[in-house]
User: What shape does this take?
Amino acid sequence: MATPALFSLSFEQLVLAIGQVHAELAAQASRAVNTSLTLRNWLIGCYIAEYELNGSDRAAYGDKVLSALAGRLHDVSNCNRRQLYDYLRFYRTYPQIVQTLSAQLRQLLPLSKLDQFEKVPTPSAQLKLASDTLLSRLSYSMFKLLVGLNDATKRSFYEVESIQGSWTVRELKRQIHSLYYERSGLSRDKQKLSRLTHQQAERQGPLLDIRDPYLFEFIGLKSKEVMGESQLEDLLIDKLEDFLLELGHGFCFEARQKRILIGDEYYFVDLVFYHRILKCHVLVELKLAEFSHENIGQLNTYVSWYRKCMMREDDNPPIGILLCTHKNHSLVEFALAGIDNQLFVSKYLLELPKKEEMERFIEEQLAAGDSGNADSPQTMGMETSDDEGGN
Assistant: This one.
């Protein structure tokens, strides 16, 4: 719909025009951030490949190049050893992305790569999508999933399906895991299967998902600024953090919305403390919902990861506290994954807040939110009825 001339605008048309301008430019900004991140990661992979081939001192590092590089790039977001390896694979899998580089970005290429990529053929329209289409329609997180597919035909299939269906990252992952490509190959009516798949698929909106960990770290946002799911949840976690610190049981605050990588997926722990008396990490998860076994399973996974990846030799095993709330009922569960010694468990529970204490705290905060003034920034707000989902 074309924006009407300013002199003929009615008030309703003014509202509509402003909304259209905002939506279009916000979508452009989202796509620009995604494209810049994707190109950054591709160029990082390009430089690593060039160094491995022609680096003047590459023999001194051997197979430890990525480890050494990650150690030096600690101030650059998303550049640990594993991610650097992913960028290298991305570059090698999608060499045609060079065709999308602006003249300014091409100046950043090593000279040997620039000469080489002038010879990169345009991909066949029958098999592959144009590079600029891939770059503008797929997020880096989607490229990362696609790079993990070793078969080029399968990868092209998912590229086309993702773009035609406007899939989210989660939908692409789900379709890969459900063997959509293989099922399509065996199907007698491939078009019908495709229609059914796209009808049921989760679709991406015009704004690419800014909650993508790669994106928000790239533009300098912190986990807390992006991952909070509701005003109520944020305020509860704020008060919970203060509550545990004020108990005087030895809690030392360490992180909020702590990002951890398990397999190929990122997860976020609401609150992480280190307990100086128990000498262990304490992980706290808040779920604005009724208790489910999935909740305790998720928390146990976090506790197990901390035990394997973060526990030092002089540490005791980490523990987790799960807080579930549904209206006026609250529940506290302790996750003691991998701790078999009953005496040790008893010692943990002696030093930690009592379940009743934490249940009372949650119920008081919810009651304060229900009775407070929703317009006051000092109250909990009134979002409970519409937004009770946890992380």
About this structure: The chain has two domains: 6-200, 222-371. The CA atoms of residues 281 and 318 lie 5 Å apart.
